[in-house]
Description:
Helix content is 26%, strand content 29%. It has 7 helices and 12 strands. Strands 4, 5, 6, 7, 8, 9, 10, 11 and 12 form a 9-stranded mixed β-sheet that branches. A 3-stranded antiparallel β-sheet has the order 1-2-3, covered by helices on one side. Helix 3 crosses helix 7.
Amino acid sequence: MEKESSEISERDILRFSDYAEWFREGSCEACLIVNRGISEHPCMFGFPKLDGSFSETGRLFERMERRAAELGFSELMGPVNYCTWMSYRFAISGFSIHYFPDCENSPEAVDWLRRLHYRELYSYRSAAVLIDNPLLQRAAESYRSLLSEGYRFLEYRGEEALGLAGEIYEISRDAFSAALLYSELPREAFDRIYLSRFRSLPLVLAAAFSPEGEMIGYIYGYPNPLGTEFISKTSAVKKRFQKHGVYAALLCFGSELVRRAGYHEIVYHFQCEQKPGFRRFPEQYESREKRYAVFSKSLRGGGGQEIQRGEL
Length: 312
């Protein structure tokens, strides 16, 4: 799974789950997690460590699947550590490429899941994209148009960027509420767990403000601590301002910040290929693609006992 960058453990998120139970077989372990905030896929495995053999992995998943069915679930999906605010996905290609944060699973772990009849539920990709490309050139038109209407685009760095954590949290909640595998995250967990991996990075935040002065969107990124690239990690625009060119304008503004810092390309990290509106850049402008997936398996015998929140 994605490597943490601080001593704060992402496992602390489990106290917000409806149910969490650890399973171990030899050198393999994973946690069976129920988060009813993800209505379509509430039962998942998270925090997998598949360092043993295929037989150990098979026994581990057999036990988790049996328990999930006993709890009344007909599907087990993952890896997801509670929700998409946390670490999730397995890498399925580009294992020699290292972005941050990243998934550290082995190619064998992916093969083992497939042998255990897990299928890809959702797929994701990361790729380096040249800043000088037709899509960003067209985005400049949106940027100029919104500036003429009184919108503002401002740059924040480091602690100044983290000082806007509250605005980032609220914009994200609004923008991602209907996203795949999304569920609410308490503000406490956002501040203490989610932000912990980014506090030591030289963050760059591009923020969009309406003519009335409301922060309505953002893109944040940072130099890749595992390589030489600049990573665009997360972006969001409030729903009522979507489809008005705000995201395109943010891309234009943010890309120029990255260009001025001496980069000629940007890594767009963890893009969901099933997200409505997902678009790839023209192939000749992309390189160093790495792909990821969340997996799912249908279970037999679902329809068991009710569970109580926090039961371990």
